[in-house]
Amino acid sequence: MDKKGIHKRRRPVLGCILILGLLWGCSEKSVDPQNEEPPPESPFKLSDFSPAESCKGCHPNHYNEWKGSMHAYAFIDPINTLWMERVRAEVGAEKLGAFCVQCHSPIGVLTGETPVGFDKETVDPLVKEGVTCDACHLMKEPSPTAQGEAQFHYDVKSGKKYGSIMDPAPNSFHESEGVSYFSVSNICLPCHDLVNHQGLPAEITYSEWLYSPYTGMGVECQDCHMETYAGQAAVGGPQREFLHRHDFAGVDIALTDNFPNMDVQRQRVEQLLRNAVTLEVEIPDAVQAGALLPIKATVINDKTGHDIPSSVTFVRQMWLEVTVASGADTIYKSGYFDADGDLMDEHSALNPNGDPDLVLFQSALFKNGQPANVFTADSIRIGSIAPFQSKTGLYSVPIPANPGSTINARVRLRFRPFPPYSIRDGASELIERIPVFEMAESEKSVIVL
Fold first, then answer.
1. What is the pLDDT of residues 373-399, one digit of tens each?
2. Measured between alpha carbons, how far is 243 from 164 in angstroms, rounded to an integer?
């Protein structure tokens, strides 16, 4: 398998504009409690934003889709909380600031409701809504991501709601305005193109798309993650042919009890992953007894508009599982779990590096050559596959000297959003709920000569 070495990735510099955004709480300076300046006044108030429930009466479909989405889960997600607390413990709350929560609850940060050391359980219910309706529909225009900060242009004075419908029906509840950027990928930029304070492009799904052929092909994020259907955008409104789903299907699912629409959410993720790549497997029809059976498995990223895996690629796991069996006897296997449910790479506590043939598409973060978190990392070893690129796994399987028999070779491409070892310390009770998705498979019978 081709592997890329550790290196620093940088994207072209984007133009900067002065806006009101999330520009506090991420300072590198040390804090002297006696001389500490008061925090800047919050630019917005909670009353500037409406809870999602207030949108439900007129927009029941969109509300119900959003309510079961990872946008609605973003702030209450215990896995995000666990990882954020780990980084906070390592670098300090003052230094971490709003680095994580700025995109898991933009309104919480903009209103000052999530100061350093905030208690997740006691914040206002609107803050707990994560990426709620107004987090997007008050955005007058999107902004480039600054280093370490997401930036937003919010209009809370006019009473308008912004969206993709260019001829919104008048209503007595709020004024509406259609803007073209809601139909293009730029609207996703502020929170899906994270560059950390070291200048490392760490979670850059937007940039992966931007510098791919899909940009020129006119394919936008919404085409896959906000599919269209016919219906009414609002109760009593006109019938429209192109309404966007608001469940924002990706590769994550909620793991906690009683979250809405969990079955639908999982089905949507399965559908996306089943149509994400092409798996090409080459296995000969026959092999000599006692010889080596060559298996070539190539994963082609020909259907996904960004790298795969994407986003937090340093915990995402996509891998090849290879099994060769003679009847009920397994001759060879790779890409299997240890007893803890971890793949047997360097992270396996029970059998570290016990699977030397493992083909795993997972990135890794480093600082000064040592493993690091996303806040402090200065380099990344890239394990994902860019659009219209491919990576190949090669296997040589010893075949028993049993001429006349038939063996069965199976290759599966599998995926999970994160591995057990990443949450074992702090959320072990959720390990059994981590989903494993089947992306593609190929199977062949081989005659032993």
1. 999 999 999 999 999 999 999 999 999
2. 9
